């Protein structure tokens, strides 16, 4: 069975109450439930994790080498800053799709740059919680 890591970065544990006008009203729990259900219908096992810490996200990516076929990753603000996460994505040699709830390119200039997108198979941005669903569809096609 195909297995996918659904990985969420900092502050995404606050979804539902965090700037709902930007990120929507669904909680992280709700989004994970939708994506796990969607994956199951396609015969894909989705395991969800979240960390507010760069090192925790790196550990999750390293561990994914041992069980996952691909990763759907919302790195939150680390998208725009983290060389360490970029190196981790390059190191694990698994396909990773970068996803964002908001359209980062329509927001502040500092969000326009992703350090991670060049080492990901693609980026999906701006479709709310459905960005994760589109990310999963994309990674399934690649796997
Ligand atoms: C985000 C966009 C990032 O710029 C921001 O720092 C986040 C959420 C998104 O899903 O739209 O934390 O990744």
CATH architecture: 3-Layer(aba) Sandwich
Number of strands: 5
What structural category arises from helix and sheet content? alpha/beta
As laid out across the biggest beta sheet, the strand order is: 2-1-3-4-5
Q: Unreliable stretches, pLDDT < 50, 5 or more residues?
A: none
At CATH level 3, the topology is Rossmann fold
Percent of residues in β-strands: 15-25%
In the CATH hierarchy, what is the superfamily? Answer: Dehydroquinase, class II
Main β sheet profile: 5 strands, parallel
Name the bound molecules. 1,3,4-trihydroxy-5-OXO-cyclohexanecarboxylic acid
Distance between the termini: 11 Å
Write down the secondary-structure element order.
EHHEHEHEEH
Rounded average pLDDT: 97
Count of discrete domains = 1
Give the C-level CATH assignment: Alpha Beta
Q: Return Rg in Å.
A: 14 Å
Helix content: 25-40%
Shape estimate: globular
Number of helices: 5
In short:
This protein has 143 residues and is an alpha/beta fold. Helices cover 36% and strands 20% of the residues.
Overview of the molecule:
With 143 residues, the protein is α/β, with parallel strands linked by helices. The protein has one domain (2-142): Rossmann fold (3-Layer(aba) Sandwich). Helix content is 36%, strand content 20%. The protein has helices spanning 20-23, 28-41, 54-64, 83-92, 130-142, and strands at residues 2-8, 44-50, 70-74, 96-100, 122-125. It has a 5-stranded parallel β-sheet with strand order 2-1-3-4-5, with helices on both faces. Bound molecules: 1,3,4-trihydroxy-5-OXO-cyclohexanecarboxylic acid. The site of 1,3,4-trihydroxy-5-OXO-cyclohexanecarboxylic acid has 10 residues, from loops.
